[in-house]
Amino acid sequence: MKICYGLESVCDFLIRTPVNVIFVKVRRTEKIISTIREFEHEYRDMIEELQLFPESTQILLELWIYSKNGTYRYFRVGRAGLSEIERDGTSGLPVSPGDS
């Protein structure tokens, strides 16, 4: 897939790992302390563009939001909307004893 970078680009960059390709959009916000629903509303068009990618366990879609002070928040884009993730791409949810 060839990505033409610019304002109309479907992603800002991609990350390739041995098992995944992660398509990432990055945007600056004035209000980094917002709810997921507020971000979904603010970046609705961008999220819908990312959701055009075919569903696949190998394709991950992410939206990275940052403030003027350099604070980042990371979100995985799914069919149902956004879910916040950690910087390393994990969900950040606590691991239950049976999951280790």
List the helices and strands and how they pair.
Elements: E1 13-16, E2 21-28, H1 36-42, H2 44-50, E3 59-66, E4 72-78, E5 81-85
Parallel strand pairs: 2-3
Antiparallel strand pairs: 1-2, 3-4, 4-5
Descriptive keywords:
14% helix, five-stranded mixed sheet, single chain, 2 helices, disordered C terminus, alpha+beta, 100 residues
In short:
This protein is an alpha+beta fold and 100 residues long. The protein has two helices and five strands, in the order ββααβββ.
Gyration radius, to the nearest Å?
A: 14 Å
**Beta-strand content bin:** 25-35%
Can you summarize the main beta sheet?
5 strands, mixed
Task: Identify the strand order in the major beta sheet.
Answer: 1-2-3-4-5
Number of strands: 5
Distance between the termini: 37 Å
The helix fraction, in percent, is 10-25%
Structural class: alpha+beta
Looking at the structure, what is the overall shape?
A: globular
Mean pLDDT: 85
Q: Poorly predicted ranges (pLDDT <50, ≥5 residues)?
A: 94-100
Q: Number of folding domains?
A: 1
- Helices, by number, come to 2
Order of helices and strands: EEHHEEE
Describe this structure in words.
The protein has 100 residues and is α+β, with helices and mostly antiparallel strands. The protein has one domain. 14% of the residues lie in helices and 32% in strands. Strand 4 and strand 5 form a beta hairpin. The C terminus is likely disordered.
